[in-house]
Specification:
alpha+beta, 2 domains, four-stranded antiparallel sheet, 10 helices
Length: 216
């Protein structure tokens, strides 16, 4: 049976919602044939019955294209368009608040809640002049809209924070007010590992390894 389909060839054509859907299938089932069908079903927009009617070689070829795409290591995406709105990566990381840090640390290690972490990192641009811009103040009530964001922005921001590593703690502690600094230190010391930044970095490392993205 001849099947016509659209195969995305860049991460910018995949949404976070699609990826979260596929990751859920992957977490619930380790059968490679099942996952191959779901990969094409989710990312190429085909019905299950249509995918099953395809030739085995065609399925393997499409899956290879998609897997190679997911192995890309995109440069940090600073701006993207979503639903008619331009979003920008937070331009002033040094002034991130304690609340923003807590939400980022809590959600970025879990792809099911990755849209909540992305709501901290990317926000609508309110003012722009050349390559400089300001973004909206962070509010936790805009989590759900981030599921439509492109995966190149998601992957690139995860890679960015992984490679930022321990520098993140220095940035935070140097920028927070005294009370916020005390709260952050208390928070980091209260984690199971006793080192919140290390746990944060380990969570990102686990995500990248699961995605088979090179850390070098």
């Amino acid at each position: 049976m001849k099947v016509e389909m659209y195969i995305p060839d860049t991460l910018s054509e995949i949404t976070l919602a699609q990826y979260q859907k596929y990751i859920k299938y992957q977490n619930d089932n380790d059968d490679e044939n099942f996952l191959a069908i779901k990969m094409i079903e989710v990312f190429c927009g085909l019905r299950n019955t249509t995918v099953r009617s395809m030739k085995a070689k065609s399925i393997n070829d499409v899956c290879k294209i998609l897997v190679d795409m997911f192995n890309e290591k995109p440069e940090l995406v600073k701006q993207f368009e979503m639903n008619g709105i331009t979003y920008g990566f937070i331009p002033d990381l040094e002034n991130i608040t304690f609340g923003e840090y807590i939400d980022l640390d809590t959600f970025i290690g879990d792809f099911e809640n990755m849209h909540k972490a992305m709501a901290v990192l990317y926000r609508p641009i309110t003012q722009k002049y050349k390559d400089k811009y300001l973004v909206e103040k962070y509010t936790a009530d805009k989590f759900n809209q981030m599921v439509d964001m492109p995966m190149d922005a998601v992957f690139s921001s995860i890679l960015f924070f992984y490679h930022l590593g321990m520098e993140l703690s220095t940035v935070m502690l140097n920028s927070l007010e005294t009370q916020e600094e005390e709260n952050l230190v208390q928070y980091l010391n209260s984690t199971v590992s006793g080192d919140g930044i290390s746990q944060f970095s380990d969570s990102l490392k686990g995500i990248l390894e699961n995605l088979k993205i090179s850390l070098n």
